Amino acid sequence: MKSQNITPKKPQNENIIENKELNIWEALLPVIVLVGMLFYNVTYAFGDDALSGSNQFILLLGAAVAAIVGFFNKVSYKQMMEEVARNVKSTTGALLILLMVGSLAGTWLISGIIPTMIYYGLQILNPTIFLAACVVICAIISIATGSSWTTSATVGIALIGIGDTLGISLGMTAGAVISGAYFGDKMSPLSDTTNLAPAMAGGELFSHIKYMTYTTVPTITVTLLFFIIIGFTIDTTGAPQISEQLNAINTAFNISPWLFIVPILVIGLIIKKTPPLIALLAGTLLGGIAAIIAQPEVVIKIAESTELTFNSAYIGVMKAMTVDTAVETTNAQLNDLFSSGGMSGMLGTIWLIVCAMVFGGVMDAIGALARISKALLSLFDSVFGLFASTVISCLTLNVTASDQYLAIVVPGRMYAKAFKDKGLAPENLSRTLEDSGTVTSVLIPWNTCGAYQSGVLGVPVADYAVYAMFNWLSPFVTLIFAAFKIKIKQLAQD
């Protein structure tokens, strides 16, 4: 879930384009073609390397199919390009933040901040409780900051490193991080999606948050139990070798608890609602200063110099911010861990997001998104059917529009009157939008959220999706509540 602390808001009065010329099969055709091409590309052609570029081009091919449909339904090229431009513009903040996260990761590596987190974390977090602890830690940070993106980019990166060192699957650790981060973000009044959902449904923020607890608390409880059980059953290989790894970290870096000052300051800035780019830039620069002070030998080595001068310090820190850097240790596993791509390492994710926004923009411009939502709404007449159609619409938009904002805005606008006509309070709709639209966005590789989390944590969506239990379980829980009429608030109730 993105938040007002990490990405720009979509305007609440965003225009949802309708096209009466378009029938449902024409609206679905680009989706069917896109899903088919992506399936072949990932399953039979490129596998895990699909995100290196081929999936991006397929998104553009999907956009081309949508454009052809649009031409046959009297939508001009200019209209489509205007909507694409609007879509891409809406991701400007996210793209800049991705670049800044890359640079922050670089300076936090060479300064010893991330190694210090891993060093102390290895001694505190026992493998048995590690995954459950990841959920709790990320939930707390995300509630405080209102941002799953910031949580992943700071604490999440360190936890991934600790988990890897303990011999725990990266997919498991990433799933735990994302589960906790999205729970905290979803329940935080600082999150923009938490504000956007009730605004679209016609509800009130704190009533929305209170009503979400009915489905969210059981879901996170099951998630915690899941990770506790995994913790008692997994066979870790890293634990017996911790002393060797601690020595390797201590040899390569000057480890000091004083280095925690930098991440604490960054989290403090975010809690104080400092604009995210400013907070991350401050963290990057502070990380660079910390590197020069605490790790001069590392900076000299990266700069390929023989002594620390102003020029070598500048080159070393600038390299860490912008390009691939690595710090060698006496442990091969840590050598893979202590590397960063800097800003350049985020370019693949940025490429994916831009291409996804092109597809979503064309689909919106030709009226396909609105047409699909209306068709789903017409299929159901019962109260449960209304909830089910909302869930399906949100999931469909996360796949087709590649943006969780559209997965909230479009169904929110389309279904508000239907819920009111059924005598249902707006909290029912806003809760369903969050349970199915917000949290599932991270499970779609080409969605902005899936692309971001995968890029920041360095774990493919396919590897963490099954372990992000909170995210995929949430829509099922909201449907169970609807089916058994649990906490379905009526308009007549206070």
Entry keywords:
2 domains; 24 helices; 72% helix; disordered N terminus
What does this protein look like?
The chain has 494 residues and is mainly α. It folds into two domains: 24-92 and 346-483, no CATH class; 101-343, no CATH class. The chain has helices at 24-45, 54-71, 77-90, 92-110, 113-124, 127-145, 148-165, 170-187, 192-201, 205-233, 242-252, 261-271, 276-294, 296-302, 310-322, 332-337, 347-365, 368-379, 383-400, 404-421, 426-438, 448-457, 461-464, 469-483; strands spanning 325-326, 339-340. The chain has a two-stranded antiparallel sheet with strand order 1-2. Helix 8 (170-187) packs antiparallel against helix 10 (205-233). The chain crosses the membrane at residues 27-47, 53-72, 93-118, 124-145, 157-183, 211-234, 246-271, 277-296, 308-327, 347-370, 382-401, 464-484. It is a multi-pass membrane protein. It holds the Pfam family Na_H_antiporter.
Low-confidence residue ranges? 1-14
Main pleated sheet: 2 strands, antiparallel
Q: Structural class of the secondary elements?
A: mainly alpha
What helical percentage do the residues reach? over 70%
Going across the biggest sheet, name each strand in turn. 1-2
**What overall form do the CA principal axes indicate?**
globular
Instruction: Please provide the ordered H/E string of secondary-structure elements.
Output: HHHHHHHHHHHHHHHEHEHHHHHHHH
Mean pLDDT: 83
Beta-strand fraction estimate? under 5%
Q: How many beta-strand segments?
A: 2
Rounded radius of gyration (Å): 23 Å
Q: How many separate structural domains? A: 2
- In whole angstroms, how far apart are the ends? 29 Å
Q: Number of helical runs?
A: 24
Subcellular location: Cell membrane
Transmembrane segments: 27-47, 53-72, 93-118, 124-145, 157-183, 211-234, 246-271, 277-296, 308-327, 347-370, 382-401, 464-484
Domain Na+/H+ antiporter NhaC-like C-terminal: 180-485
Protein name: Sodium:proton antiporter
